[in-house]
Amino acid sequence: MEEVKLHGFWSNPYYHKVIWALKLKGVEYDYVEEDIFNKSELLLKYNPVYKNIPILVHDGKPITESVAILEYIEETWPQSPLLPTDAYHKAIARFWIQFGVDKACYFHSFFRATGEEEKEKAAKEVLEILKILEDQGLGEKKFFGGDTINLVDIVFGWLPHWFETMEQLVGVKLLEASTLPRLHAWVQNLKEVDVIKENHPDPQKLFADAKIMRERLIANQSMRLHGAWLSPFSCRVIWALKLKGIAFEYIEEDLSNKTPLLLQYNPIHKKIPLLLHSGKPVYESMIIIKYIEEMWPHTPLLPTDPYERAIARFWVKFAEDNVHFTDFACYFYSFFQATGEEQEKAAKEVLEILKILEDQGLGEKKFFGGDTINLVDIEHGWLAHWFETIEQVVGVKLLEASTLPRLHAWVQNLKEVDVIKENHPDPQKLFAYFKNLREKLVANRSS
Ligand SMILES: N[C@@H](CCC(=O)N[C@@H](CS)C(=O)NCC(=O)O)C(=O)O
């Protein structure tokens, strides 16, 4: 007699998917309720990698990860098939299962979204996914499996009860009959399938549980940015956060009288920007942006294709090496603070760098990122307002339509991007700041 045990947690949707598959196949099993906030020795032993449920233990052998478990169930108990027998249709079903796995992070972002902007952004992403699912996946069928449910229905089977609860908690309804009529009908049909009807958490209990979970997630993701109004480095972090619709608290630092928090959390450079995410400090603007990109992969700021990604990273590095304004050794700083022959030389070098950027980096594209901005545009974004002001203060114009037509057009396009248009220093204030700074630097050099 074979032994089948399922380790789960009452409110977990992944665990329910496994229940549905086992029940549809008539496989008897024993259930072990785990406390996911106080994991058992057995759970840790069975799933040392992810340390989570569901875990199916078949004759003493543990299988983890719901999709792997579902495939195992299908192969081990082939009765009442949950995948098409035909290889092509099986591949298509697997595509949609993978689609569900790949897009899960967007639903997580939606669940933990706060603030109108962030919610709107996350809702838009989820709606797009649901639309693809309705148009390309479900089509005119009753279920993804046709007249009866299959593994694809099971994988998306959390949409009826769990996603509905999420929508209530976030306060945004997406899966509606008016916008997604076929997917909405699928939800109603799925709820009528016996194994689903009989095996889902009590809605009120689920709501209460999900509410606590959401509050925890939000508390864990508190986000605070220490910046300074004049800094292109803190501005670029603001652009990245806003592009991704991530809510954050902003602390303006007086760089001549830094807060103890900045000194405590960035003891090495004592500089802004400093990002405090759930109390953990991240500093150096580009490192912060890469961190944001990894934590919130929606609205990607780097191409997905590895080669394109490598090219983007090259230009990020190129900017770090050449197109920056942070140390006295760099050409842009020399152009700003030097006079006479020395400045002429620096201007020539800056022009050469900008030419490389235009010819080799930007090419014929609107943005470095193509039609929309990416990490490379964000990194070079200071060329728009800050460098222009520097040119005015110095009295030498380098980035002109006549000499650098495409880079010049890029600057204009960049200024029109909403997050950039709405987040840059006041030009007059910036001019006054740079003018004063240059006067000081020039006086120091001549004394
Ligand atoms: N490489 C750093 C540069 C940051 C930086 O230079 N920040 C300046 C403001 S624009 C700063 O905090 N200066 C204060 C100081 O140097 O004491 C980054 O990308 O974050």
CATH class of the largest domain: Mainly Alpha
| Rg on CA atoms, Å | 28 Å
Question: CATH topology of the largest domain, what is it called?
Answer: Glutathione S-transferase Yfyf (Class Pi), Chain A, domain 2
Q: Which regions are unreliable across 5 or more consecutive residues at pLDDT < 50?
A: none
SS content category? alpha/beta
With strands numbered from the N-terminus, the spatial order across the biggest sheet is 2-1-3-4
Bound molecules: glutathione
Number of domains: 4
Helix amount, in percent?
55-70%
Count of beta strands: 8
Assembly state of the chains shown: single chain
| Relative strand content | 5-15%
Description:
The longest helix is centred in the N-terminal third of the chain and has 26 residues, at 87-112. It contains 21 helices and 8 strands. Helix content is 58%, strand content 8%. It has 4 domains: 4-76, Glutaredoxin, CATH 3.40.30; 94-215, Up-down Bundle (Glutathione S-transferase Yfyf (Class Pi), Chain A, domain 2); 221-295, Glutaredoxin (3-Layer(aba) Sandwich), CATH 3.40.30; 306-446, Glutathione S-transferase Yfyf (Class Pi), Chain A, domain 2, CATH 1.20.1050.10. Strands 2-1-3-4 form a 4-stranded mixed beta sheet, with helices on one face. Strands 6-5-7-8 form a 4-stranded mixed beta sheet, covered by helices on one side. The protein has helices at residues 13-24, 41-46, 66-76, 87-112, 116-138, 151-155, 158-170, 181-191, 194-198, 203-220, 232-243, 260-265, 285-295, 306-321, 331-337, 340-362, 375-380, 382-394, 405-416, 418-422, 427-446; strands at residues 4-8, 30-33, 55-58, 61-64, 223-227, 249-252, 274-277, 280-283. The model has no long low-confidence stretch (mean pLDDT 94). By secondary structure, the protein is α/β, with parallel strands linked by helices. The structure holds glutathione (GSH). Residues 228, 231, 233, 255, 270-273, 284-286, 326 line the site of glutathione.
